[in-house]
Amino acid sequence: MLGSLTNFESLFDELRRMEQDMDELFGRWAAPAGIRSVSRGTFPPTNVGATANTVDVYLFAPGLDPKGFEVSVQQNLLLVSGERRLPLQEKATYYRQERFGGEFRRVITLPEDVDATRVEARYRDGILQITLQRKEAARPRQIQVQ
Amino acid sequence: MSDGQEIATRPASEMEAKEASTGRTAGLVLRPPADVFEETDGITLQLDMPGVSKERLSVQTDKNTLTVEGDVQIAMGQGMDALYAEVHSTHYRRSFTLSGELEPEKTEANLKDGVLTLRIPKRSELRPRRIDVRAV
What we know:
The complex is a heterodimer of chains A (146) and B (136). Chain A is mainly beta and 146 residues long. Chain A is 14% helix and 39% strand. Chain A has three helices and eight strands; from the N terminus they run αααββββββββ. In chain A, strand 1 and strand 2 (54-60) form a beta hairpin. Chain A is elongated, with a radius of gyration of 18 Å. Chain A starts with a helix and ends in a 12-residue tail after the last strand. Chain B has one domain (3-18, 30-75, 86-123): Immunoglobulin-like. In chain B, strands 1, 2, 5, 6 and 8 form a five-stranded mixed sheet that branches. Chain B has a four-stranded antiparallel sheet with strand order 3-4-10-9, with no helix packed on it. The relative contact order of chain B is 0.25. Residues 1-6 and 8-26 of chain B have low confidence and may be disordered. The chains are: A mainly beta (146), B mainly beta (136). Chains A and B meet through helix 2, helix 3, strand 1, strand 2 and strand 5 of A and strand 3, strand 4 and strand 7 of B.
């Protein structure tokens, strides 16, 4: 995956010049056809962002109990699974049923420098944010010129 | 009762025209998935709008139209770069046409964990009435 990511460096260079606004950040991102890429409509939709110190995964999974998420990290693979129960109103007439219901499971490939032992997950307004620290050695270091 | 079927999204062309006039491009607006069901006393809509808080949600009724809008706010570290994205916008919008027997001014809205639930009651005089049959 890292190999395919480097192709996008020029795109990211341009992005850096723009405002660090999510519309700009994720809106113009073009999808590479990775081996684990998924078709549209997969639940929950996921964005991944990176800073110098962290890799942040955002899963857009509304209406769930935070305790219901199973989150695990295996080297640089993040696994998130759970179940979204949408109980049907038995006496009601349904006109639209577009929301996702049932079990879900996502596997997300992360950069190889994430530290699987330092992971935090928060659930707010229906977004599960998983923050993984990057290994110290991989962080960019300022070199002093003597 | 099939009146509830009038609760429908507007044609895409109309929505796009509206988006163009507000300066937003169609590609940057998210259409929240919805469940819509009808019971004897009203209609309930449930919309998935993850990332939207109460402060950034707007529910408007205008004549026979219900419009829901919201903005996503997420915590991002400084200097964040995108590695991967399936959600390409932070703005949700969707409109529904309401049928005449509903009372949109009495809509109840509830937002929890990114799910918006709207209950629109039917006018009480238009609710189906049960007729008792008496033996003569």
